[in-house]
Each structure stands twice: as C-alpha cells, then as structure tokens.
Write a structure and sequence with these properties.
- The protein is mostly beta strands.
- It contains seven helices and 32 strands.
C-alpha cells in the first residue's frame, strides 16, 4: 500500500493515505446532496450535518479508520468537518473491538512538523501490540484540550501509531499526553509551535547517528552540547541513517529512548538514509522512514525512502530521498516533483537535504569505485538546484565535515567574494548553492580520501577519535550563519568549531 497525504480544511483534521473502502459495509447512509457514508463493524453509527461528520460508537469499540475518498482522516472528539464533497464522495468509517487492552510501553517516539502551512504537528510512536491510543493536546495558557484518536497500523515487527493535530496557534506552548485504551497515561511532554513570522530560524543539522556500540548515547551528548551553543533551536534536521540496521526496531527504540526528552519536545525532520534502503541493512524491509515519522507527503512510493517539503519562516525546505535507484539515487518521478516544488515556492531561502552527497571529500563523494551515485546526482540535481536558486544543500553519508564553494551547474567551484564578520566567513550573494556535510552525530568517524578534489571545498575536517559533529544554523532575512562543532564525547568538551555563512545580498 502506497501513501498519499493531502490537507483538508478543518481545525483538527488529520490525513494519512490508505486504500479506498473495500469489503462489504454493515450499513450505507446516503446523505441528500451529500456524501455516501459506509460503516464497517457493529455498534457504530454516523450522521452528517453542516459539513460535520459525527460518529457514535459503543463504549467497548474504537474507530480504527476513517477515509474520505480513500484518504484517511483523524477525528477529534469523534467528529470532523468535511469540505469539498459531493454526492460522489465516499466516507468510510471502520469500528473494531479490542480483544484485549494491553498495558505496554511506547517506543520510538518522535515529534515532527506535519504541515507547516497549517501549523500542524504529528506524533509517531511504536507499540508491541495494537491498541486504541489517543492523545490529549492542551494549550498551556488556557487549558483548552483536544482529544485526537490515534491509528495503530502493522509495521514490520510491531505497530506504528500516529496522531496529528492541525491549526495550532503560532508561538504557543502545548502539552500532550498519550493514553492507551485503558485510559492509562503512557507519556507526557510539551512543545512550542512555530511563530507566525519569525525574524530568525535556528535549527540543528545532524546526520548519521547510527552506531552499534552506543546507539544513541553519543547523540544524546551532542544534543546536550548543542544546548550550550544556542538557546533557541526550533527543530532538528537529520540527514539520514538514524540507526545501523533500519529493519531492526530494537535499534530504533534504543536510539530514540536515549534522546526522547529532545525529540518529543523539539520537532525532528528526517531524511531517508541508505541504512534504510540498502539491502545489506534492511533485510528487504520497506517503508522504514515512513514507519517512524509522520509528515505530509506528495504521492509517491515510500518503500525505499520518502521525499517532501515544508516551510518555516521565510525558508523553503526540501527533503529528498536518494534511495530511488542504486545507481542514480533520485529517480525521474522525484526529479519531476522537485522541479515543480521549487518552481512553486516564493520563499527567500531554499535549503535542500539529501543523504547521499553530491560533493564530498569522503569515499562516497570522491573514490572512483564508490562515487557513482554522487556523479549521477550531480548530473540530475545540480542543474535544477542552480536553476531555481537553491542556497544550501545539506548532505550526510560520508561522516566528515565539508563545506564546498558555490558550485555551478557544471559542477565547477565559483570563487565567490567573501566577507568577514565577527569571526565568520560569509559568501557574499553567491550565484550558486553551497553544499554542507556536518560530520557524524554517532561514533562512526571517517576521514577524507586521497582522491578528493580540494578545489571544490572551502573547508574540510575529518573527525578525530571519540569525536562527533553537528552544525547550528540560523537564518534571518539577510543572512545565513552556520557554526560546525566538533565534540569530544569521551571527555565532554567541544574541541573545534568553524563558522561560515551566506549573505543574501551584496554588501
């Protein structure tokens, strides 16, 4: 089953794609001049009035699915508003009864931004058994609460659960509590939504947290270290390979348990990495990133990764998947979507994220026996990035720090004018994007290779033993400022840093 997500216009309507209604309905209701409602299961009824679908179910049952023309929607307090319907619209409501009410731990919890155009946020978590979870979101200042029914779907080894809440107030704190079917609170936390028009946006670029020795302990230390370098991080942008073996749910649970206090309160936007699409690390398991994060997706095949875009302030972020092809990385459908997506944005800044690099001094960017995907990505993506004015491309995979000069369509470095300001070297109004790798946020350090072309890079830095790296990136209307930190996790200290940036206009 492939997934397609689209938004609907209701204060808390939640979308997730699934197949259209199948099987024999227990009841069919045709609303005059309105949709057809198909009910599946016993002890469930529904009404439709003033564009609102209202569901009534027995105390011992739960709603396991609601779809509108094949698109899943989540109800708040058993109701949701449906817009843009006709007499051809088909609404399907499925009710089930739990054979048991399991008391189980929740694992692999992540907070993400689902749809920034509607200030919508998602929670994704795993459970050993299927359960009728719900999430109560509460506006901290007013105490206004909203109960969102979560859906529980079979994943590769267990169940993935999702809840999404839309149209939250900007710049506002909300708490949430996840409840199981017995009404027991399983986890509580709080987060603050994005401001409506932030003057600056700060995010953490981290990548390749996977490691078999610590599996999250290093990443936890890096996140604590990052808090000493910025008092405001709006979200984390992770450019892939969260765990070593993407198919092993135990690794996801362990990794995310180390950093739960961070990733349950600060949104994490995840890029698909090769440890979720190379068979050596997946044992043919599919939909790995899809089963660990919930974001609004364009129509696509999510088996080997997922791609999407989102806005934050005056920045348009594009998240690509390099898992479409073992030889080319990004396939034709994704390239076509990318061009359409970039053509439609009006934001001042454009930042692209991808796991496999186009330019890297490491083996996957420069070694002739391993850089075929990098060369293919340069051919397919570099002209598009230049045509549509991409400013920055964030990369992973090679576990080193590297910053390129602005790179033109023909993969040639441009010696852009630089300006020094407060110890930071800024590219002044570059006419091409720059490419950044922020090292590995786990313990898998690597060095540069002999074959790399130093003319491409303004700065490179292989990671030393017992160190990991990340970048803090702040964007305002006029400038982007990034600082890379190399962190010694064995001795809990920052051992080096490097600041650079981009000035949007010439001084």
């Amino acid at each position: 089953m492939r997934k397609k997500l689209l938004a609907m216009t209701f204060l808390f309507v939640f979308l997730f794609s699934c197949s259209a209604c199948t099987g024999r309905a227990t009841q069919v209701i045709q609303i005059p001049n309105g949709p057809e409602i198909r009910l599946y299961g016993d002890d469930v009824s529904a009404s439709f009035e003033n564009d609102v679908l209202q569901i009534t179910k027995a105390d011992n049952s739960y709603i396991s699915d609601i779809t509108v023309d094949g698109e899943r929607v989540w109800a708040v307090n058993d109701s949701c508003k449906i817009d843009n319907y006709s007499s051809e619209t088909e609404i399907c409501v499925t009710a089930e009864t739990l054979a048991e009410k399991p008391n189980q731990e929740i694992t692999s919890l992540l907070l993400s931004m689902y749809d920034t155009s509607r200030n919508a946020y998602s929670l994704t978590w795993h459970s050993e058994k299927q359960d009728a979870f719900s999430v109560v979101f509460t506006e901290t200042a007013t105490g206004t609460a909203y109960e969102v029914a979560a859906y529980s779907d079979k994943a590769s080894e267990d169940y993935v659960n999702r809840a999404v809440i839309y149209d939250l107030k900007a710049g506002t704190e909300y708490s949430y509590t996840i409840f199981n079917s017995s009404g027991e609170a399983k986890y509580s936390a709080a987060f603050t939504t994005a401001e409506e028009s932030p003057e600056s946006v700060t995010f953490l670029h981290m990548s390749d947290t996977q490691d078999e020795e610590y599996n999250g302990a290093v990443w936890e230390k890096l996140l604590a270290n990052a808090q000493t370098h910025t008092d405001k991080a709006d979200f984390i942008l992770h450019t892939g390979d969260m765990v070593q073996y993407g198919n092993q749910e135990a690794l996801w649970a362990q990794m995310l348990s180390h950093v739960r206090s961070y990733v349950s309160t600060m949104p994490l936007m995840l890029v698909s990495g090769n440890h979720s699409y190379w068979e050596d690390y997946t044992d043919k398991t599919t939909d790995i990133e899809y089963n660990h994060t919930t974001v609004k997706l364009p129509e696509q095949d999510t088996a080997n990764g997922q791609y999407y875009s989102f806005d934050y302030g005056d920045i348009h972020f594009v998240v690509l998947s390099s898992g479409d092809s073992s030889k080319k990385g990004v396939g034709k459908e994704q390239v076509s979507w990318l061009e359409s997506d970039l053509a439609s944005t009006t934001k001042s800044w454009i930042i692209v994220s991808i796991h496999n690099p186009l330019y890297s001094p490491g083996k996957y960017g420069s070694s002739e026996d391993r850089n075929q995907v990098a060369l293919a990505l340069r051919e397919s993506l570099a002209p598009i990035f230049n045509q549509y004015g991409v400013d920055l491309v964030l990369q992973g995979h090679d576990h080193v720090f590297a910053l390129t000069y602005p790179m033109n369509t023909n993969s040639e470095p441009l010696q852009a004018k630089t300006v020094e300001e407060n110890g930071c070297t800024y590219f002044e109004a570059p006419s091409a994007p720059v490419y950044l790798m922020s090292g590995a946020a786990g313990n898998q350090n690597r060095g540069v290779v002999d074959e790399y072309n130093p003319a491409f890079f303004a700065k490179t830095n292989p990671l030393e033993d017992n160190t990991a790296g990340y970048s803090v990136i702040t964007v305002t209307k006029e400038k982007l400022t990034a600082t890379y930190y190399e962190y010694d996790y064995a001795n809990d200290k920052t051992v080096s840093e490097y600041s650079w940036g981009i000035l949007k206009e010439a001084a």
